[in-house]
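Student: I would love a firmer grasp of how sequence relates to backbone shape in proteins. I am handing you a single protein, as its sequence and its fold in token form. I am told such tokens are a discrete way to write the fold. I hope you can help me see how the letters and the tokens relate. Take your time, and here it is.
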Amino acid sequence: MSELTITLLRLGYLVLLWLFVLATIGVLRRDIYGTRIVQRQLRRAAPAPVATPPAPLAPTGPTDPLPRRESPRREAPARLVVTGGPLRGTTLPLGSAEILIGRAPACTLVLDDDYSSLRHARVFERAGQWYVEDLGSTNGTFVGKTRIEDATPLLLGTPLKVGQSTIELQR
């Protein structure tokens, strides 16, 4: 073989070796830093023009001595928000289906956290009330500062601690 052929083979081998090293570094980087979460913002429609209400008419009949007091409408939670941890800012809309929380890819909220189990906890609705249940996790699920064992009511704004993440029900 000529000297030129051997030099080209050496350079080709060196290029392949560097490609292998760079590919290995890319895989290690993805394993260390996890999946990148991209926040997608929904386009909001332009607000509808607000019509001014007509002026109230003067009362013509007898006035009611006790004004009616409207009962405050109880607003149901509309979303589950991650307020602390690696996925801070992630929002899940609440529907009729339960929400599984854990590291497994099949979970609704997938946590990239060594302190959470594959199937750590589930949040579900029963008779208009939202509950959280620990699914036998190793490190436990906490509502407020209390470790839970079975289904526990989850109130608006109460912190739910799963691994290193803090989650809340919000309107």
